[in-house]
């Protein structure tokens, strides 16, 4: 209920116009496609994320529907009376819900008040009135707001001129409203438009079937529709966070030896400052689109077994179980290596009669290793008593230790225009030579990008019907590269081979 009151207060503030306007002037505090995340001041803290999925007209009223409602909550643990203490739980997850708490719709009539209609049938009136500077009004029990500023400002990254109103709340804090963009700033509210990119994440999963029954050397083969909670580790104990990753697509290349995954990741970072010297700051990042590649060999793609339900927690009383399955995608530097760093993955999951715990982090050491795509996990040690811990080391490959011969992993009978060729690995000390057969000839553009999508080389050549092409792979650092072959209109490659 406190969460609903907080949201109601924010929406009520949004109902005030940005500038004094006529009663019939249309002002929309939300737009289709915008995402808002609310940090609701409850115990425990909740993050509620809603995306405005659709807008429509019903008569003369504008009606907005909210979708993709996620809430981050701390799991409530029940302790038997025999437990001497009840340790605090740091287990958090994103739970997707239908719109049962935020509201079924927000209706904006052409005249009169806003209406927030809840799924249980309740309707809240949110008045909109022309208010001058200095005006004070009550819009929630025990809360008043005072208009402090009415002016035209440049809003957003695109610097759009818009009418802005700023008001202060009796309980402290400031609210800023934009005529076109709605809520710009408010206590316990983060909009995602200007947030920074998420930090590096590592995977923390518990498969539903048989904890401890999976192979350490087989990374998960994600399927479209899989969701997983990632634990985010900062440089110290003063920074941590969580993220939700959704896998939307899975594709195997024509050679059958590489799998490509794509989807979205949204993260929450909790920061207490350097040395934990400042107050708690929560940053919510916007959903980020990702594409990841994993080289698995010809046979293992078809033999891999998907993990359908990650993060399924077995009931208490089953004793201690630990995570022996996981993978961590580490983006390399601009040379394909992790200079001076070694990544150690650790995770534990403990259940006994008094508590259940799920946690994980990445530790750092001074070695020289690289990892392209997914790595494998191996058990490194076990310690602990009531909350036993199992450590996992993420094994990578040292730069420059790949086999000495270069092979093109993609040999396609029909290489279509603008197809990509994956070179993995790249240990070559001399240039790679390719031969195109069956083409009509003409201008051909080759573009090489690294695993992060950064262009490292590009060249345009005029080729004949049987072209010999040269890739300067000897000048590239070891790593994963993609060569994009752009052929002229109508040209077609029958076969691509390595020399």
Major sheet size, sense and barrel closure: 8 strands, antiparallel
Please work out how many helical segments DSSP would assign: 2
**How much helix, percentage-wise, in residues?**
under 10%
How many whole angstroms does the radius of gyration measure? 28 Å
* The number of domains: 3
Provide the low-confidence segments as ranges. 1-28, 38-47, 68-102, 188-219, 297-427, 489-499
**Which term fits the overall shape?**
elongated
Question: Based on helices, strands and strand pairing, what is the structural class?
Answer: mainly beta
Structural account:
The chain contains 2 helices and 30 strands. With about 500 residues, the protein is mostly beta strands. Strands 1, 2, 3, 4, 5, 6, 7 and 13 form an 8-stranded antiparallel sheet that branches. Strands 14, 15, 16, 17, 18 and 19 form a 6-stranded antiparallel sheet that branches.
Fold blueprint:
Layout: H1 2-14, E1 35-40, E2 46-58, E3 61-74, E4 92-97, E5 105-108, E6 114-117, E7 123-126, E8 136-140, E9 143-155, E10 160-169, E11 174-178, E12 182-185, E13 189-191, E14 202-203, E15 227-233, E16 239-252, E17 258-271, E18 281-284, E19 288-295, H2 300-303, E20 342-351, E21 356-365, E22 376-383, E23 389-395, E24 419-423, E25 432-437, E26 442-450, E27 455-463, E28 467-471, E29 481-486, E30 495-498
Condensed summary:
The protein is mainly beta and 499 residues long. The chain has helices at 2-14, 300-303; strands spanning 35-40, 46-58, 61-74, 92-97, 105-108, 114-117, 123-126, 136-140, 143-155, 160-169, 174-178, 182-185, 189-191, 202-203, 227-233, 239-252, 258-271, 281-284, 288-295, 342-351, 356-365, 376-383, 389-395, 419-423, 432-437, 442-450, 455-463, 467-471, 481-486, 495-498.
């Amino acid at each position: 209920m406190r969460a609903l009151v907080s949201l109601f207060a924010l929406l009520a503030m949004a109902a005030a116009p940005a500038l004094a306007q006529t009663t019939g002037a249309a002002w929309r505090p939300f737009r289709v496609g915008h995402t808002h995340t609310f940090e609701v001041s409850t115990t425990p803290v909740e993050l509620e994320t809603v995306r405005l999925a659709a807008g429509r007209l019903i008569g003369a009223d504008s009606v907005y529907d909210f979708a993709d409602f996620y809430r981050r909550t701390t799991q409530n643990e029940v302790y038997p009376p025999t437990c001497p203490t009840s340790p605090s739980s740091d287990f958090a997850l994103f739970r997707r819900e239908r719109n049962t708490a935020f509201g079924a719709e927000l209706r904006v009539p052409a005249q009169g008040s806003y209406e927030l209609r809840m799924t249980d049938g309740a309707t809240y009136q949110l008045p909109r009135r022309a208010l001058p500077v200095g005006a004070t009004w009550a819009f929630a029990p025990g809360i008043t707001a005072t208009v402090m500023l009415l002016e035209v400002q440049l809003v957003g990254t695109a610097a759009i001129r818009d009418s802005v109103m700023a008001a202060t709340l009796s309980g402290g804090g400031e609210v800023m409203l934009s005529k076109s963009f709605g809520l710009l700033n408010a206590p316990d509210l983060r909009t995602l438009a200007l947030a920074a990119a998420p930090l590096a994440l590592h995977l923390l999963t518990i498969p539903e079937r048989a904890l401890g029954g999976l192979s350490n050397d087989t990374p998960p083969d994600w399927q479209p529709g899989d969701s997983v909670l990632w634990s985010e580790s900062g440089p110290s104990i003063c920074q941590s966070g969580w993220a939700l990753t959704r896998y939307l697509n899975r594709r195997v290349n024509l050679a059958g030896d590489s799998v490509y995954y794509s989807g979205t990741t949204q993260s929450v970072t909790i920061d207490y400052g350097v040395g934990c010297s400042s107050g708690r700051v929560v940053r919510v990042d916007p959903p980020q689109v990702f594409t990841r590649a994993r080289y698995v060999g010809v046979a293992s793609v078809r033999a891999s077994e998907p993990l359908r339900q990650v993060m399924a927690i077995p009931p208490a009383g089953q004793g201690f179980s630990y995570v022996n399955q996981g993978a961590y995608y580490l983006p390399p530097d601009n040379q394909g290596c992790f200079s001076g760093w070694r990544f150690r993955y650790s995770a534990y999951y403990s259940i006994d009669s008094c508590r259940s715990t799920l946690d994980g982090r990445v530790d750092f050491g001074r070695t020289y290793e690289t990892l392209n795509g997914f790595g494998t996990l191996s058990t490194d040690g076990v310690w602990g008593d009531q909350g036993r811990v199992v450590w996992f080391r993420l094994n990578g490959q040292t730069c420059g230790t790949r086999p000495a011969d270069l092979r093109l992993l993609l040999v396609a009978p029909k290489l279509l225009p603008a197809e990509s060729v994956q070179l993995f690995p790249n240990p070559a000390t001399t240039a790679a030579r390719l031969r195109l057969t069956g083409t009509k000839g003409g201008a051909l553009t080759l573009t090489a990008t690294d695993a992060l999508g950064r262009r490292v080389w590009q060249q345009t050549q005029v080729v004949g019907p049987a072209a010999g092409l040269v890739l300067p792979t000897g000048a590239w650092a070891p790593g994963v590269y993609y060569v994009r072959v752009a052929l002229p209109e109508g040209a077609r490659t029958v076969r691509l081979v390595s020399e």
